[in-house]
Structures are given as structure tokens and as C-alpha cells.
Design a protein that fits this description.
It is a single chain. 40% of the residues lie in helices and 20% in strands. With 281 residues, it is of the alpha/beta class. Helix 1 packs across helix 4 and helix 8 packs parallel to helix 11. The N terminus is likely disordered.
Length: 281
């Protein structure tokens, strides 16, 4: 299960792609809840393929165990043994972070589209179908973003910010993922846990998109996860100015956002240059 994804003539997608889409799931010490996450991904793929033109073999779930010590990979392997959707299991020998893990998963094969799912969240049944249809019917769009069901309520003023900085509600063309360089491995981003926000911002700054309010994913709060660490802030209006940063996070904050501004400028410049290449002289 750790071999690269081969070309699959049965999947019906030849040329530059080996398969229709990859669902990339980084995971760490998720043995107690990874089955729920995997089951939601499989259910969403099957809901799309049961009546549509794409067979289940056109989709691949790629899990990346990021140095777990609780048997997470064993739980995934048990699930994969009977899964109707193919599952590739990658293992990092030590914890490398969510960015490196997602990039490793995205590099498996040549999918047309990329979807991302965290190890404690869920796709709703129509997520895969909504995303694939969205990009298929909008060739000008580089990515699709859907609505999010929050497992715990937040102040209404925060919903848009949360929805627009997650990646579990994204579907991205592989070319767009590669153009922005994937997820940044900057360790300071990892300290602040803003890898998702930067990735989302670079996509939004660089490519056209298709947005829908239709809710297709469920975002869970679990002790210690990103949602939980910010929950006190999200429970109050933004003007309350509640900070949840640790001293280490305060230290790296200006470094991160300085680099973000430079990265955004570089991607806009690259996009402008690329557009000019296709303009008549």
C-alpha cells in the first residue's frame, strides 16, 4: 500500500492524470477517531460515483501517518482491507508536521483534483460530488470552496473567516496546488498553526474560484486541536480582541506575516507574467 499510485486505465482518465482525485488525510495519534474520518471520505466518494460517470477506482484516499505512536496506521490498514475505495498509506518515521504530510500525499500519482481532510473531521455525503461538479463546470476556476458545519457554535462574525481559511472544504486543481508551491514547510507557520490560512490565501490571491454556501463538511473541536485552541476567541465578537497566542507564538507572529506578504506578492507576480505569455504581441 506504500507504492506510488500507478496509471489506472480502468479509471477512465488518461493523458496528464493518473486518477480523478486524491483525498489527502494527514494523521497523528488518531487511532480512536480515524475510522469515522475514513468512513466519511468513502461514503462521499461512493455517493458521487453511484450514479455518476466516475467509477470509485478513479478516486484515491492517501493517508499520511505523521509519526503516530498509538497504532493509527494499523487502524487505517484494517479499514483499507475492506474499503471499496483504494487507500494508500504513507508513514513519516518522525513527526514532520501537517504541511509536509499533505505535500507528500498530494505528490502520490497525478490526480486531476486534490481534496484535503483532517484526521478528526468529516466529509458530508455530497462533498466530493459537489466539488468535482464545481470544477468540471467552471474551467476558469482554480479551486472550489464549500460551506462548513461547525460542531460547536461560534460568534456569527467569525464564521466567514473560519470557512475561508480551512482546507477541508477545498477542492483544488493539481496545477494550482503546484503553482503556489503546495503547503509551506516554514516551521514558524507550524508554531502558529496557520498553514491552512496561508495556503488558502495564496490560492485566493492567485486564481479565480467558485464559492458555494452549500455545507459539505463537518469541522470538529477536539481537546488541543486548532479549533479548540482558538475557541475562546471564536466564541466572542472580533472586537473583543481576545488573543490565544502563547509567548512562542507571539515571537514568531511578525516573522510569519512578513513572509506571507512576500509569498503573496511573488505568486501575484508569477501569475501576471504567465498571463502575459498568452497575450498577443
Amino acid at each position: 500500500m506504500n507504492q506510488p499510485i500507478p496509471d489506472d486505465p480502468a479509471a477512465g482518465h488518461q493523458g496528464p492524470y493518473t486518477h480523478r482525485a486524491s483525498i489527502v488525510i494527514p494523521c497523528r495519534n488518531a487511532a480512536s477517531y480515524i475510522r469515522r474520518t475514513l468512513d466519511s471520505a468513502v461514503t462521499s466518494v461512493l455517493a458521487h460515483t453511484v450514479h455518476g460517470p466516475d467509477p470509485a477506482s478513479a478516486f484515491r484516499i492517501v493517508t499520511v501517518d505523521d509519526g503516530s505512536s498509538d497504532g493509527t496506521s494499523d487502524r487505517i490498514a484494517d479499514f483499507a482491507a475492506t474499503s471499496p475505495v483504494g487507500i494508500t498509506i504513507l508513514r513519516n518515521p518522525e513527526n514532520q508536521g501537517v504541511s509536509a504530510s499533505r505535500n507528500a500525499g498530494a505528490a502520490q500519482g497525478r490526480p486531476q483534483y486534490l481534496l484535503f481532510l483532517d484526521d478528526d473531521d468529516e466529509f458530508l455525503p455530497d462533498h466530493v460530488g459537489s466539488c468535482v461538479y464545481g470544477l468540471d463546470s467552471s474551467p476558469e476556476a482554480g479551486f472550489v470552496r464549500t460551506g462548513v458545519e461547525l460542531a460547536d457554535p461560534v460568534h456569527p462574525s467569525w464564521y466567514a473567516a473560519i470557512r475561508n481559511t480551512l482546507v477541508i472544504n477545498l477542492c483544488v486543481r493539481i496545477e494550482c496546488h503546484r503553482f503556489i508551491g503546495g503547503f509551506s514547510p516554514d516551521p514558524n507557520l507550524r508554531t502558529l498553526q496557520v498553514e491552512d490560512a496561508l495556503y488558502s490565501s495564496l490560492l485566493f490571491d492567485t486564481f479565480q474560484n467558485r464559492m458555494t454556501d452549500h455545507v459539505t463538511v463537518r469541522y470538529h473541536r477536539r481537546p488541543g486541536n486548532a479549533f479548540d485552541r482558538q475557541y475562546a476567541r471564536f466564541s466572542q465578537p472580533p472586537e473583543a480582541n481576545i488573543t490565544a497566542l502563547t509567548p512562542e507564538e507571539e515571537r514568531v507572529y511578525p516573522l510569519v506575516f512578513g513572509r506571507h506578504e512576500r509569498a503573496a506578492f511573488l505568486n501575484r507576480h508569477r501569475a501576471d507574467v504567465l498571463k502575459r505569455c498568452f497575450q498577443p504581441t
